[in-house]
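Bench log, entry 3. Co-assembly request; chain sequences pasted below exactly as received.
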Amino acid sequence: MNIAVLVSGSGTNLQALIDAQNKNELSGRIACVISSKPGVYSLERARLAGIDSVVLPTRKSGEDVEAKLLEALGKYDIGLVVLAGFLSILGEQVISKYRNRIINVHPSLIPSFCGKGFYGLKVHESALQYGVKVSGATVHFVNEIPDGGAIILQKAVEVKQGDTPETLQRRIMEEAEWKLLPEAVRLFCEGKLRVVDNKTIITEEN
Amino acid sequence: MNIAVLVSGSGTNLQALIDAQNKNELSGRIACVISSKPGVYSLERARLAGIDSVVLPTRKSGEDVEAKLLEALGKYDIGLVVLAGFLSILGEQVISKYRNRIINVHPSLIPSFCGKGFYGLKVHESALQYGVKVSGATVHFVNEIPDGGAIILQKAVEVKQGDTPETLQRRIMEEAEWKLLPEAVRLFCEGKLRVVDNKTIITEEN
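Structure output for the full assembly:
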């Protein structure tokens, strides 16, 4: 199973996937890293791991980014698309063609603090402003609704008094995102995920 | 600190409070149990524990239930009102007079699956229909907005495949509600809860 990891920044979730691959825990192969921005550290991580990378600046006008993305996914014979801190919205063609083969990690317990406008630090700012004592992360399939696809895995993380958006973000990454994402990729690559009625059934016995 | 526990049914959360009191873990005294329904098992639990009880049928027309509730709370010199499966809505006078002295337990991780219309099994039906992998319980102060008051404690509980609303409800009670509620009462009675900007600050050092 060939995997494409889509990134926009420093790529700590990409690193978690590379580390899992190096420990033979992924049951698939990261075939390419696709970045929506040039010059980000994710591209260096890919280079150091010997993984091909593609830069597809989504803000560049006059180019059909979606066509180029589809082209890259086809070229590498991608069976699973992983959004790992990818800050652009995927086009409908990609979502439709790769239905139930695109997964995303979101830094909250969906349906809390998710949907349009909730990304990056904004998610954690909102959780702290609300005053929740538990937050967490969610890995889910991607459909046409922002953060609306079937939930694959979730993990709760304690919110501590004195947390800032930054400290909460870091704890959720360390305790949840970096564990859930490789685990979800493994389950997918081993054929253990099935989506029924926008819910994910996990069959640990294959 | 005198505590009133308001109930409407069998009273498993009331029992958790009685058990904590018997182990001297409550730092307060359950002075009366107030039921919105006659004949419920909560009243028997109160009797067995030697606790006074009051029945205030909220559906009875022609009676000022709120005045009778205020009268009962005054008579027992109540400092903390605990809603433990109380299926009626408190009146504005009670909420106002006992501001930040009324706590409720809700069987989800607020802000998920809460607010108007979300009570009892409906909460768990909604969580299962959404397909979350983690749910839980929340103890919070009561204000004028349904489930909108400051969150005191939350605890996550795993949703398992094959869960029905009933099995999920039971697991959330056992793993979260019956632990969180006595703990929140203890913190309140020991003066360790402070509400600022609709968020609860817990000071373990008194």
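Residues 73 and 161 of chain B are 44 Å apart (CA to CA). Chain B has six helices and nine strands.
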